[in-house]
Design goal:
The chain is α/β, with parallel strands linked by helices and about 325 residues long. The protein contains 17 helices and five strands. The protein has three domains: about 110 residues, P-loop containing nucleotide triphosphate hydrolases (Rossmann fold, 3-Layer(aba) Sandwich), CATH 3.40.50.300; about 80 residues, Orthogonal Bundle (Helicase, Ruva Protein, domain 3), CATH 1.10.8; about 130 residues, Zinc Finger, Delta Prime, domain 3 (Up-down Bundle), CATH 1.20.272.10.
């Protein structure tokens, strides 16, 4: 049998191949540019014991998937899988391969960020569980994978899908057949640090003292490794970077720079600019400069003295409200 798997979603493609190996019970052999087959006969040879193999050829279609071999590969007892990151669908050979009924072609594309909530809901169903849209959105927020972070047309990194699947498996196991609850997501899925930085600046911009303290408390309760000073230094670094970004954006807006010019200057994604714009108007420039100066002083103090780290950080944040 002959397969042509293409697209940038390596995670989904690999999951699909593993399912095929499990279903057939055949031995899997992988080939790549650094480890190519010695010839087409290797691809057609059968395993002496099982009668077939699953052969995966990564980025080797141009060298081995030639017209005269398509029928032979398709009729083979082996499952011969060519994986390509992209196909040029304008080429005649590509059109013929995709139209060939004996070639099992499948595209594995990485979903855009705005498609992820529905992707999670469907994936939960395929795993025999239930996840509603609201809980899917919360899960994405805690991992920093919403459209605001990736950009309006941003593509989610393939590695993020693996992380999402791991967290989803954990939530479904915990729920034990019941729908995943908001409480379960909050309890089991730690917030990404970048999300904590954004949440603190958002609460400060809204003058929401309670939310500032709750976000900081959640950070300390979920932080892994290190003592209080180490965790505080990490948070101070995140917040300092956030407030530097807000100052930079304020200056860019004051100079009437376009979003394209800001992207060129900073390297930020449009989604990050969108989020920062929501926060930036909640601060006067002198307030941002004061917060940043205090955070930089605190960073130095924590590295050279025995200052009660968390208490001093919370005092700095309280003074900013």
């Amino acid at each position: 049998m002959l397969y042509l798997y293409y697209g940038t979603n390596d995670y989904a493609r690999e999951e699909h191949i593993r399912a095929l190996v499990k279903k057939t019970g055949l031995v899997r052999v992988d080939f790549s540019a650094s480890n190519p087959p010695t010839g087409v006969d290797v691809l057609l040879a059968q395993d002496l014991f099982s009668g077939g193999q699953v052969l995966v050829l990564e980025q080797l279609a141009a060298d081995y998937l030639v017209a005269e071999m398509v029928d032979r590969f398709a009729q083979s007892a082996n499952h011969i899988i060519f994986t390509e990151s992209a196909l040029d669908k304008r080429l005649k050979t590509t059109k013929e391969l995709l139209a060939n009924p004996h070639v099992i072609a499948k595209e594995f594309s990485v979903p855009a960020a705005e498609q992820l909530p529905e992707w999670l809901v469907q994936r939960a169903q395929s795993l025999g569980g239930t996840l509603h849209i609201s809980e899917a959105q919360l899960l994405l927020q805690r991992l920093g994978l919403t459209a605001e972070f990736a950009g309006p047309v941003g593509q989610v990194k393939e590695a993020s899908l693996g992380r999402l699947s791991q967290e989803l498996h954990k939530l479904l196991m915990y729920s034990n057949g019941d729908p995943v609850t908001r409480a379960a997501v909050e309890q089991l899925v730690p917030e990404e640090q970048v999300v904590v930085g954004l949440a603190v600046s958002d609460a400060l911009a809204r003058k929401d003292r309670k939310q500032v303290y709750q976000t900081v408390a959640r950070y300390y309760s979920q932080a892994e490794g290190g003592d209080e000073t180490t965790r505080t230094l990490q948070l101070v670094g995140l917040l300092a970077e956030q407030f530097r970004s807000l100052l930079l954006l304020q200056d860019a807006l004051r100079r009437r720079m376009t979003e394209g010019e800001i992207v060129t200057l900073t390297g930020w994604k449009p989604g990050r600019i969108f989020v920062l714009k929501k926060h930036v108007h909640g601060f006067r420039p002198e307030v941002l400069q004061s917060i940043l100066s205090k955070l930089e002083s605190l960073d130095l103090e924590l590295k050279t003295t025995n200052t009660p780290a968390r208490a001093v950080l919370e005092l700095v944040l309280a003074q900013a409200i």
